[in-house]
């Protein structure tokens, strides 16, 4: 088995041992090994190095949720970490729940949601999570975290800040029954829905339109579209001081954060720094559909993607003085700009 068989980038070296974690018993037995153990889910947010990995890779593949039992009233829904995220979102929408519709189409498995605090179009995982049940590899015991104990931030969490320590076993989300979404706060999605920013739409239509947008941007995985052989958005939208943001051109997309800083669009920064869709570096390239996605366009190696990512970082730093940080998880490789 190779990392290239397990990740959406389809790059990465040979793995000494691979374990499919279809039960908690297998998961706990595997993570307690003394040798290096790399835990993964759907492989949609990983860039693995070309060199061989001398250790065990454990893929979390547990299944099941209590969605059906709660279909009448809403409330708490427990879902196993190995369930495909978009499958779960689709099930909640079909059952008449609201709260996850704008997170449709995000690749990966449920266990990654709290680690990354995944988000899209104004919604984040932290808005719906009630509890996260984990195995703490440091103290070798089960630990459950409430939402306010998870240290959630923008694409961040306690679990991400202490990489490798916590294995997510399942999560409990709290959803409402309802046919209407929360107010739509992003103009791109509002335009797609043909409504004004701040208005609501049906949960089912929001999901359909989000999937359409993601498909146009090459963000829905497809065997036949090399633009989708990626990890989606490679870089996190950076936050800067409000004084700096005020000096940017009026056209620069900006969103105010609760701490007074301003979030900028990494895609806009890249485009203004000369990075173009379809730009090629060896076998890697910028997606032809979305400048924020790096893709395996033609037999790429991990090193090709790393070098292209560095070029992106260097361009933005030279133009704006901003260091773009990767959203993608790096395994057996490193990304340091020049």
Low-confidence residue ranges: none
Query: What is the CATH domain class of the largest domain?
Result: Alpha Beta
| Quaternary structure annotation | single chain
Helix and strand composition category: alpha+beta
Strand content: 15-25%
Globally, the shape reads globular
- Rg over C-alpha atoms, rounded to the nearest angstrom: 20 Å
Q: What is the percent of helical residues? A: 10-25%
Mean pLDDT: 92
How do the helices and strands follow one another from N- to C-terminus?
Answer: EHEEEEHEHEEEEHEHHEEHEEHEEEHE
CATH topology of the largest domain: Uridine Diphospho-n-acetylenolpyruvylglucosamine Reductase, domain 3
The biggest beta sheet reads: 5 strands, antiparallel
The CATH architecture classification of the largest domain is 2-Layer Sandwich
Q: Domain count, please report it.
A: 3
Separate helix tally: 9
| SS elements, strand count | 19
Q: How would you describe this structure to a colleague?
A:
The protein has 338 residues and is α+β, with helices and mostly antiparallel strands. The chain has three domains: 3-60, Uridine Diphospho-n-acetylenolpyruvylglucosamine Reductase, domain 2 (2-Layer Sandwich), CATH 3.30.43; 67-178, 2-Layer Sandwich (Uridine Diphospho-n-acetylenolpyruvylglucosamine Reductase, domain 3); 226-331, Alpha-Beta Complex (Uridine Diphospho-n-acetylenolpyruvylglucosamine Reductase, domain 1). It is built from nine helices and 19 strands. The chain has helices at residues 24-31, 85-94, 112-116, 158-161, 187-193, 203-216, 242-246, 266-272, 302-320, and strands spanning 15-21, 37-40, 46-48, 53-60, 75-80, 97-98, 119-120, 123-124, 129-136, 141-146, 166-177, 230-233, 239-240, 254-256, 262-264, 280-281, 284-286, 293-296, 329-331. The strands form six sheets. Strands 5, 6, 9, 10 and 11 form a five-stranded antiparallel sheet that branches.
């Amino acid at each position: 088995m190779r990392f290239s068989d397990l990740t959406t980038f389809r790059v990465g070296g040979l793995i000494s041992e691979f374990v499919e974690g279809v039960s908690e018993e297998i998961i706990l037995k595997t993570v307690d090994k003394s040798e290096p153990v790399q835990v993964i889910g759907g492989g949609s947010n990983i860039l693995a190095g070309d060199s061989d990995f001398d250790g065990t890779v454990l893929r979390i593949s547990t299944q099941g949720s209590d969605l059906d039992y709660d279909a009448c009233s809403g409330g708490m829904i427990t879902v196993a970490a190995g369930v495909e995220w978009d499958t779960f979102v689709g099930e909640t929408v079909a059952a008449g729940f609201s709260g996850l519709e704008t997170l449709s189409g995000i690749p990966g498995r449920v266990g990654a949601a709290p680690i990354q605090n995944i988000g899209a179009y104004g919604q984040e995982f932290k808005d719906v999570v009630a509890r996260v049940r984990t195995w703490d590899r440091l103290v070798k015991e089960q630990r459950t975290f409430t939402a306010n104990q998870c240290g959630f931030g923008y694409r961040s969490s306690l679990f991400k800040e202490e990489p490798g320590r916590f294995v997510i076993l399942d999560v409990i989300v709290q959803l409402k029954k309802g046919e209407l979404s929360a107010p739509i706060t992003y103009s791109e999605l509002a335009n797609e829905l043909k409504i004004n920013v701040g208005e609501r739409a049906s949960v089912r239509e929001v999901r359909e339109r989000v999937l359409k947008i993601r498909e146009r941007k090459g963000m829905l995985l497809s065997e036949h579209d090399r633009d989708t052989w990626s990890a989606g958005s490679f870089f996190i939208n950076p936050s800067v001081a409000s004084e700096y943001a005020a000096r940017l051109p009026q056209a620069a997309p900006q969103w105010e954060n609760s701490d007074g800083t301003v979030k900028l669009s990494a895609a806009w920064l890249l485009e203004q720094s000369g990075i173009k869709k379809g730009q090629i570096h060896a076998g890697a390239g910028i997606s032809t559909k979305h400048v924020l996605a790096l893709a395996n366009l033609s037999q790429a190696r991990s090193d090709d993607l790393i070098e292209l990512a560095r070029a992106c970082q260097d361009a933005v730093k030279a133009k704006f003085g901003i260091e773009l940080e990767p959203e993608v998880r790096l395994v057996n490789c490193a990304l340091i700009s020049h």
